[in-house]
Design goal:
This protein is an alpha/beta fold. The chain has two domains: about 5-185, Rossmann fold (3-Layer(aba) Sandwich); about 195-330, N-(1-d-carboxylethyl)-l-norvaline Dehydrogenase, domain 2. Helix 1 (about 15-25) links the parallel strand 1 and strand 2. It contains 15 helices and eight strands. It is globular. An eight-stranded mixed sheet has the order 3-2-1-4-5-6-7-8, with helices on both faces. Helix content is about 50%, strand content about 10%. Helix 4 runs parallel beside helix 5.
């Protein structure tokens, strides 16, 4: 790894990838942003705006977009990977032949792969060369892309096995408005970032049904309890879920008006079908796919996750939102802890 990190490839030009690329370019780094959509590349390079995923935000002229993975990774000192979870494996598979030497990779997407129920770094381990595995890191926390792009104060967590590398990328990422905390719990940081999207769907259902603030607060709290139970079974540190990548991101996504997953839940609670909702969206609501993968993990580790179970029943059109809430409320009485 070079002593100075000054050239970064950002893979994925959705709202979050674009916001991170803007942030780094404004800090003075050379940034190449890979986009799947030709219209996004054209918009960024000609109008200095991602009119598809981050409309209305002016990007620095130094930020260049490309549709070539070869160009995006050429001579870069590190990669930030921000592709939606459902496309992660296919993009990594295409990316791998271009990585002939080791370089740090920061995983900045939040999800669990459907089918395999693997975390994103586990998918990376499947698809990227073995010599790169030690250099994987995870960036997560309460962070709406639009607010980062506006320079509003944001704090996140960066986790990795190589703490020297984590400290290096703390310095790369940090500014007076973007604070980065170091961690070692790669599993916990990823799981918190993924499951909060599912809980945001459920919180949105509560709001769509107009059940009140008491109900939403209870949902958030019990959702955190479910996340901690699964995390502990998977080897995560339970304390991680009380930090930025856990409760911080959970509260933001379950209550923030900019949350796509919460908005989808509100529409579900208002009686719309999930197929209709998703058909009208340009951006990805990760919680829909993650819900199914989370249920797979709950069964694999034999963890009681009733919220995860009920949101899946709603998404699969087996159950009305009101019936799902009733079934959660009428479960057998039990102690809060344990």
């Amino acid at each position: 790894m070079p002593t100075t990190i000054n050239k970064i490839g950002v893979i994925g030009a959705g709202a979050w990838g674009t916001a991170l690329a803007k942030h780094l370019a404004e800090k003075g780094l050379t940034v190449r942003l890979w986009a799947y959509e030709p219209a996004v590349v054209e918009s960024i390079n000609t109008s200095h705006e991602n009119s598809v995923f981050l409309n209305g935000v002016t990007l620095p002229p130094s930020l260049k977009a490309t549709s070539s993975l070869v160009e995006a990774v050429h001579a870069c000192h590190g990669l930030i990977f921000a592709v939606p979870s459902h496309a992660t494996r296919s993009v990594l598979r295409e990316l791998a032949p271009n990585l002939v030497d080791s370089r740090p990779v920061v995983c900045a997407n939040k999800g669990i792969e459907e089918g395999s129920a693997k975390l994103m770094t586990q998918v990376m381990e499947d698809e990227l060369p073995t010599f790169m595995h030690r250099s994987f890191m995870v960036l997560s926390g309460p962070s709406f892309a639009s607010e980062l792009s506006e320079g509003r104060p944001t704090a996140v967590c960066l986790a990795g096995g190589d703490q020297t590398l984590v400290r290096t990328f703390q310095d790369v990422l940090m500014t007076s408005t973007f604070r980065v905390y170091a961690d070692t719990d790669v599993i916990g940081v990823q799981l918190g970032g993924a499951l909060k999207n599912v809980m945001a769907l459920a919180a949105g259902v509560i709001d769509g049904l107009c059940l009140g603030l008491n109900a939403r607060a209870a949902l958030i709290t019990r959702g955190l309890a479910e996340t901690i139970r699964l995390g502990a079974a998977m080897g995560a540190d339970p304390r991680t879920f009380y930090g930025l990548s856990g409760v911080g991101d959970l509260v933001l996504t379950c209550t923030g008006t900019l949350s796509r997953n919460h908005a989808v839940g509100v529409q579900l609670g208002s009686g719309e079908r999930i197929e209709t909702i998703l058909a009208g969206m340009q951006a990805v609501a990760e919680g829909v796919r993650t819900a199914r993968a989370a249920l797979t993990l709950a069964r694999r580790y034999q963890i009681d996750m009733p919220i995860i179970q009920e949101i899946n029943a709603v998404l699969d059109d087996k159950k009305s939102c009101r019936q799902a809430v009733s079934d959660l409320m009428e479960r057998d009485a039990k102690p809060e802890k344990g």
